[in-house]
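User: Can you recover a sequence for this backbone? Please restate the input before giving your answer.

Assistant: Of course. Working from this structure:
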């Protein structure tokens, strides 16, 4: 079967995709496909029988006036249609289940692959767009396999059976009728090429439409506050108009398969009537043979129609399959080296040695950064916004690979150890607290999945989160809204701190949130953090003076370089330094008595 299409696809790349889809799936579905095909073969057989029996109806019943045969044929027709009904039921059921299984399996497989992909993949692909694409392409993959089986088992077998009937009735007339087929195939191939191009654009545009809708839902407050409704509607209008245009082109290409099929079918059947009529009238052939042949020819054009339009829609599914494989084939970066060992954590000293890093080639974000974070101590990174502080936190977790330099934990190069062992020793609180679909309890428990409820609650208490959690409508079982939308900024932060407390990892990476909190929240978050940082190796990106002053060592990061380092007191002594300047414009000013009299933060940096 696959041979058939490979040769007619006209493109090596296409047959490669098809081959891959088939080799990946045939073993698993062979049994179901075989049963489905067998049942469909019964359906095909019943169609052929209907044509074949016409000869006896005409010759024996109408010409021969044989009533006995009429009853017999009637009974046979009833039996055959009953079998046909049951076979259709069975085939739809069996193949439908396969289709659903194909969807579920490719969803799992795509998700598993996405989980392995590096952070950078997600930074360069908008999530809602990705989801839209995956969904469309998986449905395409399902259609590809299922239509393949249905069309080949039902339509091709029906065609073969009917051609068999035709040839057995009248070989000469069969050849005359079927001569139009090669011409039809040629026309279809031209349409296939057009379809290939448009199908890809269609997926792309549809994904953009769905991603616009998702993003609007996620950012609804900003949308309303900035009265962005009109701009966004215009944007969506344009997108949907383009998508509509693309889809119309697909409709047009699909529709274009019809006229040639119908015209050629008309020509072939007209030939049968003319040629057969001539033979019956002039040459005295039996009329039953002509009727049966005519019935077979007419019935044969239905599967031919389906096969030819299938060839074009099949192209669309192949495009989906190819796009899905592009995602599945995205190479996994930051994967473990073959010889990777687990991290052997001792004291937990972290050392960045001459790190140079860029997100895009040629645009250095970090330039020969060297930082040593002693075991059990707190090291603070401060500096203006965009300086590269969060990037450093990402690199320590190996979300990206460095361009130059090494990161060592207790002397072990993190690029040579397993990512899982590295990350399981790290508690991470990100700059933007992230909550997942599920309850508050679930969200804290991600820190340590085997923790029991008591441990989760203890962590929440330490993170100063317990109080507000029990005030929620369902307490710990309250579902968090999308991206934590129904919690305040400070509450979300405390939940992510609770998650890190529960993890109880020896290394702590803390990217302090820059969003302003009210005094009360800030004090609570601060207390939570202080507990967390106690006696762990902590690297904290600090924006609040209270955190900065508690640090054992401070590194000032500016435009990707370490520009100053030292303790708070030492750095303050350099009156003209970056740190002192930052302090001047943003840090709290502390008079000699140590009392805070203004409350300001470094603006976002
Ligand atoms: N995923 C990314 N892809 C490309 N560039 C990025 C990415 N993330 C950050 N950058 C760029 O890298 C630079 C450093 O960003 P980074 O987030 O590390 O700064 P930061 O010091 O944490 O700033 P802030 O104090 O505002 O959080 C910035 O110029 C930023 O635009
Ligand atoms: Mg940052």
């Amino acid at each position: 079967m696959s041979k058939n299409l490979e040769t007619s696809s006209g493109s090596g790349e296409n047959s490669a995709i098809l081959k891959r889809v088939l080799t990946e799936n045939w073993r698993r579905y062979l049994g179901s496909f075989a049963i489905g095909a067998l049942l469909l073969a019964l359906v095909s057989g019943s169609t052929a029988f209907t044509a074949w029996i016409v000869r006896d109806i005409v010759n024996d019943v109408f010409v021969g006036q044989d009533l006995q045969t009429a009853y017999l044929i009637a009974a046979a027709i009833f039996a055959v249609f009953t079998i046909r009904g049951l076979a259709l039921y069975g085939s739809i059921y069996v193949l439908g289940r396969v289709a659903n299984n194909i969807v579920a399996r490719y969803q799992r497989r795509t998700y598993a692959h996405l989980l392995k992909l590096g952070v950078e993949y997600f930074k360069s692909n908008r999530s809602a767009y990705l989801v839209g694409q995956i969904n469309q392409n998986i449905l395409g993959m399902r259609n590809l396999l299922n239509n393949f089986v249905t069309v080949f088992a039902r339509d091709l077998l029906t065609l073969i059976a009917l051609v068999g009937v035709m040839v057995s009735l009248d070989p000469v007339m069969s050849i005359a009728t079927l001569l139009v087929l090669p011409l039809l195939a040629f026309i279809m191939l031209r349409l296939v090429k057009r379809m290939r191009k448009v199908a890809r654009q269609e997926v792309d545009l549809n994904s953009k439409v769905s991603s616009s809708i998702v993003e609007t839902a996620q950012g609804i407050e900003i949308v309303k506050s900035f009265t962005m409704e009109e701009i966004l509607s215009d944007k969506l209008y344009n997108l949907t108009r383009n998508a509509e245009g693309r889809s119309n082109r697909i409709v047009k290409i699909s529709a274009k398969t019809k006229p040639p099929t119908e015209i050629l079918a008309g020509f072939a059947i007209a030939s049968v009537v003319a040629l057969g009529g001539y033979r019956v009238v002039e040459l005295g052939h039996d009329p039953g043979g002509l009727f049966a042949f005519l019935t077979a020819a007419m019935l044969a054009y239905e599967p031919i129609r389906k096969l030819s339009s299938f060839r074009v829609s099949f192209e669309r599914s192949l495009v989906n399959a190819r796009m899905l494989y592009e995602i599945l084939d995205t190479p996994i970066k930051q994967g473990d080296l073959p010889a990777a060992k687990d991290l052997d954590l001792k004291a937990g000293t972290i050392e960045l040695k001459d790190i140079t890093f860029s997100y895009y080639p040629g645009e250095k974000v970090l330039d020969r950064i060297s930082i040593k974070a002693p075991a059990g101590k707190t090291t603070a990174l401060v500096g203006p916004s965009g300086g590269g502080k969060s990037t450093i936190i990402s690199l320590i977790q190996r979300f990206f690979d460095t361009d130059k330099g090494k990161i060592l934990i207790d002397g072990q190069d993190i690029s040579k150890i397993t990512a899982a062992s590295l990350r399981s020793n790290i508690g991470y609180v990100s700059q933007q607290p992230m909550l997942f679909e599920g309850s508050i309890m679930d969200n804290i428990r991600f820190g340590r999945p085997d923790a029991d409820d008591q441990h989760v609650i203890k962590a929440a208490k330490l993170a100063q989160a317990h109080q507000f959690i029990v005030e929620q409508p369902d307490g710990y079982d309250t579902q968090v809204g999308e991206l934590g939308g129904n919690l305040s900024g400070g509450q979300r932060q405390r939940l992510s701190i609770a998650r890190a407390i529960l993890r109880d990892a020896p290394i702590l990476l803390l990217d302090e949130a820059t969003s302003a909190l009210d005094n009360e929240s800030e004090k609570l978050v601060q207390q939570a953090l202080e507990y967390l940082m106690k006696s762990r190796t902590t690297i904290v990106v600090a924006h609040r003076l209270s955190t900065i002053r508690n640090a054992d060592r401070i590194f000032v990061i500016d435009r990707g370089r370490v520009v100053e380092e030292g303790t708070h007191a030492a750095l303050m002594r350099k009156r003209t330094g970056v740190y002192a300047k930052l302090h001047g414009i943003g840090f709290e000013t502390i008079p000699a008595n140590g009392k805070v009299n203004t409350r300001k933060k470094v603006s976002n940096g």
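That completes the design. The two ends are 63 Å apart (CA to CA).
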